[in-house]
Each structure stands twice: as C-alpha cells, then as structure tokens.
Design brief:
It is built from one helix and eight strands, in the order αββββββββ. It is mainly β. The two termini are 34 Å apart.
Length: 145
C-alpha cells in the first residue's frame, strides 16, 4: 500500500513539473535593456495554440497608455488588456514554442516569436525576431504563478 501511495505521489509531482515547463501561466516581463519589471502577461492555450495578453502594467504612470505606434487594429488601443502574443505552437518534441507573433507595444512592431521555458518552468526565454531567429533579441520572463 505504501508503494502505491509513493508511486501516485511521484506521478502527481511529475505531472506538476511537466505542467510548469510550458509557457502557459502568468509571467512578469523584464526589459532586456534596463532590467526593469514592466508587466504581467497571461499566456493561455486553446486547441494547442498559445496567446498572451497584458494583464497588469507595473509602472503606475503607464496605466492609461495606448499603443500609438501600432499599425494594425491595436492602434491607439489601451496597452492594458492587449493581446501581444498570438498563434504560437509547440515545436515537435523539443521544449520550445514558435510559429506565432509578438507585439512590442513600445515601438508598435510585430515580430516572429520563439519561446523556451528554463529552470523547470520558472523562467521563459522569449525571442522576438525578423526573418531568422539569429536577428532579434531575447527577454527572460519570470513565472508569477
């Protein structure tokens, strides 16, 4: 009986660890240049596709900011609540996700995106790029929940 309980606990722990090794959840974004905490982004999954929206802006002065540099339907829309990550899917068997886009509300540009969880799912490398992944920049986001 004790072996059965131990096996069940091990399976539950493995399932929790696996669930945390995905981009799904709430993330604190960190500016790659200034290292300042910027926002909380909630990444959710529907039918194998990840999308992310800004759930909280951490700078009290930017609560009412709008995406004035956006060139698509998000132009002049509030940054708070905005979907900035769209159409991302898991890459085969490795632990990365790509195929979608990410918006930088500061400059209004939309980039291709590649994401990879790190540190057992406690951090997420988010790389925005144009063309090939070599031409871009990476931010490391930290899991909030």
């Amino acid at each position: 009986m004790i072996k059965l309980i131990a096996a069940a606990a091990l399976l539950a722990a493995a399932g929790t660890a696996f669930a945390q090794a995905t981009p799904v959840g709430l993330w604190k974004t960190i500016d790659d240049e200034t290292k300042a905490e910027k926002s909380h982004v909630r990444i959710s999954e529907a039918d194998g596709v990840l999308n992310g929206r800004i759930e909280k802006l951490l700078d009290p002065k930017k609560q009412d900011s709008k995406c004035d540099k956006c060139t698509d339907s998000r132009k002049d829309q509030p940054v708070l609540g905005m979907t900035i990550l769209e159409g991302v899917k898991k890459d085969g068997e490795d632990n990365s996700w790509s195929g979608g886009t990410i918006l930088d509300p500061n400059n209004g540009k939309v980039y291709k995106v590649r994401m990879s969880p790190k540190d057992g799912g406690k951090a997420l490398d988010v790389r925005g790029y144009i063309g090939m992944p070599l031409l871009g920049r990476t931010q490391t986001w930290l899991r909030v929940e």
